[in-house]
Amino acid sequence: MKKTLYTLFLAFAASVASAQDINKIITKDYVDHLIKTLSSDEMQGRRTFTPGIDKAASFIEGEFKQIGLKPLAGASGYRQTFYKYQFKPVSAKVTIDGQAVPSENIVVVGHNNEQLSFDQTNSDGFIKLDPSKDFITQYRGLARSGKKQLVLVDVNFVDAFNRLKGQAGRAVDEKDLNPAKPSAIVFVLDKDTVAKDFKVELKNEIVKMPLFNVAGIIPGKSKAKELVIFSGHYDHMGIVKAKDGDSIMNGADDDASGTSAMIALAKYYKKLNNNERTLIFVAFTAEEIGGFGARYFSQQLNPDDVVAMFNIEMIGKDSKFGKNTAFITGYDKSDFGQILQKNLAGTEFTFHPDPYIKENLFYRSDNATLAALGVPAHTISTDKIDVDPYYHQLTDEYKTLDVENILSTIKAIAKSAVSIVKGIDTPTRIPKLGQR
Ligand SMILES: [Zn+2]
């Protein structure tokens, strides 16, 4: 009897403590500190492969250490490093009918070799883009063709051509380097035809570049093999051409807000110290250049072990449903959203299904890789993606954020995840997409 009473008292004390503690653990000051630091100019826009993202990673590592997270099984630290190969064009020479094309009028796509030379006799020849059709559609078809070809671009496409030129160097895996059957699509601006012959000579330097996710765990007490993931991407778009005296893409909402939420949740669950399942907290790299970080991370574990993934992306301004609301992408693909909603019953916060189905957000963020592998992996967001004037702009800065919105969303996620963290609820799986 005495023991039962005592147990009851403990349970009561614990529930009171956790209800109070959330406001003490996830404070405005703490969240402010995280977002301000991640979106500061010092981080130089956190572009993958730059010193700025290295700084951001070190900051997140420091926070994880202070919180007391453990590294992933088998890892010695929080950084999960992998490599890609980047191409730095050394030279690209094109001669048409004996005349050299100015270098600013040349863009090469799909060339993964250190050296390549071809002319009209040993290639797929030349074509001319149809000036009456869309540039991008024609470009996409060509970029994937695997051909060796010269493509003449009408001068009316000059803007699209320059955008293509401005794109960052591609990054590929080791297996895609120096293919036995080389390809290159060589776009040449302001040339109408090839009367007699052409010649192409390309040289690349290949540089091995590190990328790193930052990940830490809180081991589960009784269901340690079952994993629950909380994530956000910490990369953004770096330094661009200045506009109104600013050239740093700070990415405060995208996705310093989600990364900060992930860190704050780590702090919260570590303090609670009652998770039956193992919790993984991860800041993904390279979301903005193709989701490489999430893909690498997903390949390091068995997706069947992952019970749920809470990916958090852009929670810096209130959602179209108003204050104390957020939406969940792929809401009807599993019962993840319903479980979260059930745990929020009696609070002022509600989750909604993604209202921007046409935007295809479910497949546009880092949840997509694990979702394709069957994991109930969803993104939680509050962004009005159709009208957000700051999205992917220089103006996505700390001062445009509503920190109260971020705070309330983080706390709602913390409460809504509780039955999954404790191993009581298990969301239904999402049908696997194709093969791994
Ligand atoms: Zn993003």
TrEMBL record:
InterPro entries xrefs: M28_fam, Peptidase_M28
A GO MF label: metalloexopeptidase activity
Pfam families xref list: Peptidase_M28
Residues of the Peptidase M28 domain: 213-414
GO biological process, one term: proteolysis
Signal peptide: 1-19
Highest taxon listed in the record's lineage: Bacteria
Keywords: Hydrolase, Signal
Record protein name field: M20/M25/M40 family metallo-hydrolase
Species of the source: Pedobacter frigiditerrae
